[in-house]
Design goal:
mainly alpha; elongated; binds fe (ii) ion
């Protein structure tokens, strides 16, 4: 593939990543945050469903939401434009390896964040909409990370 063809092929994949993964996942996060707030507060009472455990759920959600928003911003504003430029100008390839490795490392750290929220949410078995939305988000994210790790990032190696 010529550098121009490689770049336009990667540009199409990047557009798909933003439209089919980043944007819907940010919407899922909004829905999840709203459901968590509503459902944990509705179930607060004596026993394990205390204000403190609702705060734990909220903290775990906050950690996940801010990590994802920042990861998507770094990809869209820094990594993706850099990657496209390096495909057009192969002498720039060495500049992209560090950022690709950093994003891949953030992918590997994600299961700990989603797992933390899943564990905190188990304290609220009545929060069924939250649990279903979180499960859908986790599945979507796993597909998203796989496409980047297996289809996009190897183009820069
Ligand atoms: Fe992404
Ligand atoms: Fe990513």
């Amino acid at each position: 593939m010529t550098p121009g063809a490689a770049a336009s092929d990667a540009a199409a994949l990047i557009e798909r990543l933003v439209l089919e993964y980043h944007e819907p996942e940010l919407e899922m996060l909004d829905r999840l945050g709203e459901a968590l707030y509503r459902e944990t507060r509705a179930h607060i009472g004596p026993g394990p469903q205390s204000v403190a455990t609702a705060d734990q759920v909220e903290a775990a959600f906050g950690a996940l939401a801010s990590e994802l928003a920042s990861h998507f911003r770094k990809e869209e504003n820094v990594l993706f434009p850099l990657l496209l430029r390096a495909l057009e100008e192969p002498e720039l390839a060495s500049m992209v390896r560090g950022p690709v490795a950093a994003m891949a490392a953030e992918h590997r750290a994600l299961p700990a964040l989603t797992g933390g929220l899943t564990a905190a949410l188990r304290l609220f078995p009545g929060a069924t909409e939250s649990a279903a939305t979180l499960a859908a988000l986790v599945a979507h994210l796993s597909d998203h990370m796989r496409v980047e790790d297996e289809e996009l990032f190897p183009r820069m190696r």
